[in-house]
Design goal:
4-stranded antiparallel beta sheet; alpha+beta; 44% helix; elongated
């Protein structure tokens, strides 16, 4: 069921984006009197799942979910309809229209995706606002995971700044982004009440962007160990622990924070330990013997940071959400440009950061959350616009490149040249799609 939910979100999101992208081509084409022969969600080599003729346009759904298309009369595209191109140009064909009209038609798809991405970001802010932990509210500092520890952070550190960016909202993704995208080389923290500058080795740009570390945390909020959920029949349940019990020691050694508890039981799988347990609203501490699992666990879920620390929520009016959504989209695109720059510089490996449908789908999660769904859809819309503008024949950016050449030079590339260039571009795009999805399959096989 989890997989179906993930796949369902991915398919719905891509379907929305593909249909609206193609509508961005369809609308100006029709406004300029250009005939549109087909409007398809997904590709239909051989046959389609659904089709209906309305006027001069066939609308349908293909069986190959690798995109979608509109077939515009007199346009050299992935359909490679050479027979039509051998005929004399007709006034309703794409090739008969002025260069500026053809340029508007080709830019229509990415324009829709850019506008849609900004608009969805804005509506997510308007509808949900932004809930976050102010960094100042996390009074106990950070609990460091293995990657954060290797970088040089320590439990209890209070982060003040990453590079030149103040750490105002508690989120380890901010630290990751500043290191991997913006080349931050120093993290300023307060450690044992003293300011400390943690130097960041340039190697972390590569390490943090590796696929294996995609979901790894650098740190979380440091918290006491309060029991959240107890698994039936597990060691904690057998020992009588219940929700909101606080574990304050192990075998007499104080463990005021969860990370200290995990340190105290590490390597003690299958052993019986004595926990100091403080019941809710009680000051006395009970000594409770518990036999850990073979993995050294109690089989409980600890209470999250919102149990101990207050969040804040920034609300947006409709008027406020529009510029805020645009800013969010611009920042996202800026990060994408910088990431590409890091790839070209060799700091980020393409094979580590590239992913196909499985990688994209995993970002939606296995539970249906509309806020996350729309946020992901906005991000994908901007990525689709950005990728489609790349100057590769067969993509919108390739057509735009040749049209700009025609506008500037006054010379139109020949149909034969365009056919060959489109074929080369199609092979490049297909190769990238196969590489991205092949990497997903390789990662799945290798666990």
């Amino acid at each position: 069921m989890d997989t179906l939910i993930t796949v369902g979100q991915l398919v719905l999101s891509l379907s929305i984006l593909i249909v609206l992208h193609e509508f961005g081509h369809f609308l100006p084409a029709r406004l300029f009197g250009t005939r549109v022969e087909k409007f398809y969600l997904f590709f239909d080599p051989g046959f389609s799942l659904f089709k209906k003729q309305i006027g001069e346009t066939e609308y349908g759904i293909g069986w190959l979910p690798l995109g979608g298309y509109v077939k515009i009369s007199g346009m050299i595209d992935e359909s490679f309809d050479k027979e039509q191109m051998e005929q004399a140009p007709q006034p309703w064909e794409f090739r008969s229209k002025p260069a500026w009209q053809r340029l508007v038609i080709m830019l229509g798809g990415v324009t829709v995706n850019f506008v849609l991405g900004f608009f969805i970001y804005a509506m997510v802010l308007f509808g949900y606002g932004e809930e976050y932990f102010p960094a100042d509210n996390i009074t106990a500092g950070i609990a460091v995971d293995s990657l954060g520890q290797e970088i040089g952070l320590e439990n209890g550190d209070k982060i003040l700044r990453v590079g030149d960016v103040p750490f105002e909202r508690f989120n380890d993704r901010i630290v990751l982004r500043e290191i991997a995208i913006n080349n931050a080389r120093e993290i300023e923290v307060v450690r044992n009440e003293q300011p400390v500058a943690v130097a960041v080795d340039p190697k972390w740009v590569d390490v943090l962007t590796r696929y294996e570390n995609k979901n790894s945390r650098l740190f979380t909020a440091r918290m006491p160990f309060v029991v959240g959920v107890v698994k039936d029949g597990g060691p904690a349940d057998v020992a009588g622990l219940v929700t909101e019990d606080r574990i304050v020691s192990v075998d007499g050694s104080p463990t005021p924070y969860f990370d200290q508890f995990t340190d105290a039981v590490r390597g003690r799988g299958g052993e019986t330990v004595t926990l100091g347990v403080q019941k809710k609203d009680q000051e006395n501490v009970q000594q409770v013997p518990v036999t850990l699992t073979d993995e050294g666990q109690l089989l409980v879920a600890a209470a999250g940071p919102d149990y101990f620390y207050d969040t804040e929520r920034q609300e947006y009016s409709f008027a406020e959400s529009i510029p805020a959504g645009i800013d969010q989209g611009v920042n996202f695109l800026s990060d994408q440009f910088k990431a590409f720059g890091q790839m070209f510089a060799g700091n980020i490996k393409v094979t580590e950061s590239l992913g196909g449908f499985a990688s994209i789908g995993s970002m939606f999660g296995s539970t249906w959350n509309w806020e996350r769904f729309w946020y992901m859809t906005a991000s994908l819309s901007l990525i689709l616009a950005f990728m489609n503008l790349l100057p590769i024949p067969a993509l919108d950016g390739g057509h735009v490149m040749f049209l700009l050449y025609e506008v500037v030079s006054g010379r139109k590339p020949s149909d034969t040249f365009m056919e060959r260039a489109t074929m080369v571009g199609f092979v490049i795009v297909l190769g990238l799609v196969l590489l991205a999805n092949g990497l997903d399959i390789w990662r799945w096989i290798n666990g």
